[in-house]
Amino acid sequence: MEKIRVFLSDQQVLFREGIHFILSGEDDFEVTGETTSNEEAYSFIQANPPNIAILSMHDVKTDGAEITRHIRRNVPSVSVILITDKKEPEKLFSAIKCGASACLTKDTEPEHLLDIIRVVTQGSLPIIEELLTPAIASLVLNEFEDLDTINKQFDDLLANITPKEKQVLNAVATNGEMEQLTSKLDMSEDTIRHSLRLILNKLVSNEQARNIIDVAQRSLPSIIRTGHGNGKTTEYVTKAEFNEFKDSLMERLKSFIGELT
After folding, report:
1. 141: left (phi > 0), else alpha (psi -120 to 50), else beta?
2. Confidence band, pLDDT 50/70/90 cuts, at residue 258
3. Does an H or E element contain 9, and which?
4. Does 96 have pLDDT greater than 70?
5. Which whole-number Å values give the CA distances from 43 to 14, 46, 48, 193, 238, in the listed order?
């Protein structure tokens, strides 16, 4: 049987060695390497991609959400499990949007950790369960409301939620218990979880697209030329140049989002 290859990164050596010890006691795992820095981890992961990267959400130089975005964009075969001290809503929401498959706290029971790694390897996304938290559902609703302005600038390029998905999120924001949700929404549990999976996909694709937009906006000054006239210095870009820049950006975003969906 082919072993599940795991890479570990955490500043706390004892915690990292603890995970290594747990994995080494199982026949189906192989630890391919470990480090104290997410930045170093990214280099190792690119050179020798594991099946699973277990990374720290709290890194001094590069936090877990940022490094996960890089991994999901450049080494998509690698699934990421983020480790945090405690599940604060904002941090957890960052973990959801960046494309992590799961987010666990450091006090997670060893058996649960092993179960999570195994199901993630099979393609499951345990992080979907976090969307059933009322505080997270509220953050998701706010996120999609904030997209309206950006979408107007980019021809509705970013994904938005459907009325049905919004109904699910509103219900979760009121009460995240599945039994109450199925009754209140008159939907099966499978239907609700399917909606949450679609919402998760939209959050991840939008986050990556917004990062591309941010980079493109920062790079816009590089195509602006400086002209001199009437003793004044003026920065300008022709309409044709700007349209070319915008069309190029739109094509990149459409291509990227197409890969995620």
Report:
1. alpha
2. low
3. strand 4-9
4. yes
5. 22, 5, 9, 35, 40
Write down the domain spans for the chain.
4-124, 134-260
Q: Which residues contact 2 (CB under 8 A, 6 or more apart)?
A: none
127 with 101: CB under 8 angstroms?
yes
> Distance between CA atoms of 190 and 98, rounded to whole angstroms?
24
Q: How far apart are CA 221 and CA 205, in angstroms?
A: 26
Buried b (16+ CB within 10 A) or exposed e, 74-90: ebeebbbbbbbeebeee
Contact 118, 4 (CB under 8 A): yes
Checking if the pLDDT of 213 tops 80, the result is no
Contact predicate 143/169, CB 8 Å: no
DSSP alpha helix (H) spans, the chain = 13-24, 38-47, 64-74, 89-98, 110-121, 134-153, 163-174, 178-185, 189-219, 239-260
- Reference 99, options 119, 69, 70; nearest CA is 69
Q: What angle do CA 81, 194, 79 make, to 5 degrees?
A: 20
**Superfamily covering domain 4-124:** Response regulator (3.40.50.2300)
- 192 versus 255: the higher-pLDDT residue is 192
Q: What is the spatial distance between Cα 68 and Cα 56, in angstroms, rounded to a whole number? A: 10
Could you tell me the pTM of the whole model? 0.82
Task: List alpha helices for 107-133, DSSP H.
Answer: 110-121
DSSP string, 181-244: HHHHHT--HHHHHHHHHHHHHHHHHHHHHHHHHHHHHHHGGGG-EEEEETTEEEEE--HHHHHH
